[in-house]
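Feature request disguised as a bug report, sorry. It would help if multi-protein outputs had a clear separator. Right now it looks like this:
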Amino acid sequence: MTEFVAFRVTGITGGRAVGGYLIRFSMQADIASLPRVKQIRFSDPYAKISIGPHFTFVAIARSDSPQQYEANDTAYERTLTFDMALSKEQLEGLERHRNGKDMQLTMDIYGNLFDGYNWNFGYDRINPVTIDRGAWTKALEETGYGSSLVFELPLKHASLGDVQAMDAALTKAREHLYDGNYREVVADCRVAMEWSP
């Protein structure tokens, strides 16, 4: 399908989903110039997301609205969004794979391709999709990932300064958790506990 339409990831955001988390890929479709007489069309794209050298399946990402691209005498671009819903276990698996580095994914895009005579499956692969660590952790924060962790510290006689110091240490621990720096998470949690009376 690369001779007609090619996809690329332009950004990533996070969102909340019932019972899980939502990763939203902002995409651009680049449609090549082809004579209109061919009546080539590509519609209903979705993406199979995988990780690693063996293309371990993660989830399916679907377009947020119906999409159809038609051959035209001039090249053009379209933007779209793919939404990928993940369970806590899937997101934790992705975090283990990422291991504090940039996220590396493979996106296999499928859809219906009309070649002027018949309908067939269209296909395009984006490999690798590299999402830098900062953008990935920001998207994780937008999903609410990690906010369900419960931190319980005794605050019976804590002063305002102690509470602020504990909060700062726990905030830092959460940032380390997103970055995959697990030893630092434990260290900052210990600092928070030491501030408690």
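(second protein starts here, but nothing in the output says so)
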Amino acid sequence: MTDPLRRKHRQEQEQILRNKKARQKKLKVVKVALLTLTILVGVVVIIDALNTGNQRRRVVGSPPSQYQHGVLVDNGTKTFGFDAEWNFNFTPGSVVKVKLVLTSGIGVQVTFGSLAAFNTNLLNGELQGPLEMSGPLKPSSPTMTWTGAVSGGGYKIELGNLGDESSIAAVQAYVEAS
């Protein structure tokens, strides 16, 4: 080969090598950026799920150690600023009757189910479920009832004030297990 051809060939080879290194550098930057973004999103999702899970549905009380039957709450009233709950330990196969009445306040979110249903999904912060009864009690619809068979064990009725702590809520309950 002649000198001009060798020089041109060498220049082409050097240009190919520079282009290859530039592509590799860009690819490396993109990979690092995607990895960083993935890690950041993962950390945010996990922290949010943990915070959401820790803010929701804590079991304040525990169910009684013995199975319960008969009239368990006879028009008992809970008055509260933030939340309240009733805890039960039903005999497997019990038929449970629950009647709740909002007696004061702007409204209450009611949730009734087994303790396992109150476990929080760490990915989305939602309850595992299924719940036997869930919904709001408001002055326009102050009564909620549920009757059904339960699998037994720990259950709870959780009440969450729909207002702030200065808006005290009161709920009257009747619970019977047979």
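Even a blank line would do. Unrelated, but nice: Confidence is low (pLDDT under 50) at residues 53-59.
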